[in-house]
Q: What sequence folds into this?
């Protein structure tokens, strides 16, 4: 039998990650001076103040987005193992009339891989990705949405689940159209599932974020409960991937910074900082110059997940910091900047460990960390049990995908 040819459509293909930003000589000199001035000002004042434009030096450096594509690719290879598949990866926003013709001629299956593919603003309207529907409707091979999610930034007013039935007509029409052209849908969390049920009357399979199972074939033991004595190591991470995230970070840093120093004083080792986006480099520099001793864990997603394995728990902002920690059985406390974080922790029945950024204070974070230390093994058991359930749902979903291309 011929290999199944798959076009995988993901947030960031590994081949397109970390491309340098091209600026003219004058603009680069201006940005160089601006970067150094902002760091110096922040360190001296003790108030973080960074502008994203001047500190962006590489494109598509979000390790979470990269992890999604890698994990989906791994699971498709695992699903089609008996007969084999050939996977070509393309990035979001790359669809065009030319690429649609290419997909129809060269592939057997089109897979939209994970991530916040659906983004609702404060008015319930979709972002620019709604333009994809003009191309999806012309794709003649089966289309699958795999582990997709709903993003609702908490920097502004957010649309509640109860309002999904009263979304703008434009949004409802898109969701209905999307539901009609996609053969199978799996979602990463309950609100995304409810969105399709309430706004488009479409059922979906709840499989969790694909990155929960990154590297599963390499380390199948990650599904078991991690036991053993505490080693006292706590990982940290913040979100700085864009101007909204930076604005939130400026407001939560006065809480986080003293907590980080407290964590360092109670540990026999340096704190481990897990870098999930290159815009976090200046934040790491700021924290170090403020006197924090940090061991930087930096690399592709599997490097990060392996680092998370040795932590007792993680205090993070980036959602995929928590997801990659969970992928190796390590608990996390998340400072949520998007309702997707709350949805992820709800999926594991661990909502108490997701703190909305605008409700963060020293007392609440200390309480969460103390409770985590007391409940470490219980939380690890919860993570292991839920991942096992989600993996079963993922395999059930993938069996339906296989049937679309005539393999049973």
A:
């Amino acid at each position: 039998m011929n290999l199944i040819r798959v076009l995988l459509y993901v947030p960031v293909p590994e081949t397109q990650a970390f491309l340098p930003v091209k600026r003219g000589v004058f603009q680069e000199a201006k940005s160089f001076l601006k970067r150094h001035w902002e760091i110096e000002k922040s360190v001296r004042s003790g108030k973080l103040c960074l502008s994203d434009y001047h500190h962006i030096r590489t494109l598509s450096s979000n390790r979470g987005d990269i992890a999604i594509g890698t994990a989906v690719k791994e699971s498709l290879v695992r699903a089609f193992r008996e007969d084999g598949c050939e996977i070509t990866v393309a990035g979001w926003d790359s669809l065009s009339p030319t690429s649609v013709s290419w997909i129809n001629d060269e592939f057997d299956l089109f897979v939209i891989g994970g991530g916040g593919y659906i983004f609702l603003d404060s008015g319930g309207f979709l972002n620019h990705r709604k333009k994809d529907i003009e191309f999806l409707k012309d794709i003649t091979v089966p289309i699958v949405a795999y582990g997709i999610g709903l993003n609702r930034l908490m920097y502004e007013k957010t649309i509640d689940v109860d309002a999904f039935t009263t979304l703008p007509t434009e949004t409802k029409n898109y969701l209905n159209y999307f539901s009609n052209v996609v053969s199978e849908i799996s979602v990463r969390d309950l609100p995304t599932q409810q969105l399709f049920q309430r706004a488009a009357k479409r059922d979906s399979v709840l499989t969790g974020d694909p990155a929960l199972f990154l590297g599963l074939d390499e380390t199948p033991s990650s599904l078991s409960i991690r036991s053993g004595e505490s080693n006292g190591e706590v990982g940290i991470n913040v979100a700085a991937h864009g101007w909204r995230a930076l604005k939130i970070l400026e407001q939560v840093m006065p809480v986080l910074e003293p907590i980080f120093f407290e964590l360092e004083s109670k540990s026999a080792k340096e704190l481990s900082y897990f870098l999930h986006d290159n815009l976090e480099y200046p934040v790491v520099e700021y924290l170090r110059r403020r006197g924090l001793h940090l061991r930087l864990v930096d690399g592709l997603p599997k490097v990060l997940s392996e680092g998370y394995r040795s932590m007792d728990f993680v205090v993070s902002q980036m959602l995929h910091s928590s997801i990659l920690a969970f992928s190796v059985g390590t608990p996390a406390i998340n400072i949520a900047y998007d309702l997707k974080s709350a949805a992820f922790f709800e999926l594991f029945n661990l909502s108490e460990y997701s703190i909305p950024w605008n409700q963060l204070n020293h007392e609440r974070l200390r309480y969460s960390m103390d409770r985590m230390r007391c409940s470490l093994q219980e939380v690890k058991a919860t993570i292991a049990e839920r991942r096992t359930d989600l993996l079963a749902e993922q395999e059930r979903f993938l069996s339906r995908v296989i049937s679309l291309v005539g393999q049973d």
Remarks:
- The chain has two domains: 4-13+61-218+389-404, 226-385.
- The chain has a mean pLDDT of 94.
- Residues 382 and 402 are 30 Å apart (CA to CA).
- The chain is about 45% helix and 15% strand.
